[in-house]
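Appendix B. Raw example, untouched.
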Amino acid sequence: MTWTAGIDIGSTYTKAVIARDGEIAGRALEPTGFRLAAVAEAALARALEQAGIGRGDVEYTVATGFGRHQVDLSDAQVTDLTAAARGANAIFPGTRTILDVGGQTMKAIRIGAGAKVESFRLNDKCAAGTGAFLEKTARYMGFGTAEIGPLVATSKDSVPISGVCAVFAESEVINQLSQGAAPADIMHGAIVSLVGRAVQLMKRVRMEPEFTLVGGILRFERMIDVVRQELSSEVNVAPGDLVQFTAAYGAALLGLSRLRKLRGQSVATEAAA
């Protein structure tokens, strides 16, 4: 039995996954904040507790995400592109294109055989193209992030939000509210705007099915529905909160792969001796 860990230190949340022979045995999520080492330790500790093992039982740990180089509890670091590709491929083996929408970035990734990244595009410069846009839109209207899903579920139609940047989009939201538009419909419009940007990003990597959606913002069912409509295709979405843990799971799987490779090299060296 082999235990590995994957830690995804994202800009908004830090996720940890404990895997037993490649199967998820424990996972935990913590707000990232600014003390990256401390939050990584906290997430890992909670995931270990859920898995029912101790820190010493983990044989290999891989860190990913924007803060991967700022913690010293891992044996290796990989990009979030590589980790998301491996995790998405493990959950949905037919995956060819991945849309990853996080709090501060949005990524489109096309993968090939062996979950190798063939092409990718990032949108990390403008808030209107990230999950933060939805969170800010909700705050303008007096709602928290946790209320986005239930709020937009009551929408009857979407109000167009066409601003090309978050500042102009905020002005549109304020204007729509002053004209009596329902907050749920404005939120729906913000999702349509964000998905429109996402699809453009996917086109730039020459997207092809199967499509797999990952990232915390994809936990909103209406977001998934709009992506499906825009692509005119079915999409893969991991069940429950697993959609937020895809990269962390991929990191744990990469740890297992590297550990097996190291063991193979060790055996080969011993045999040669």
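End of appendix B.
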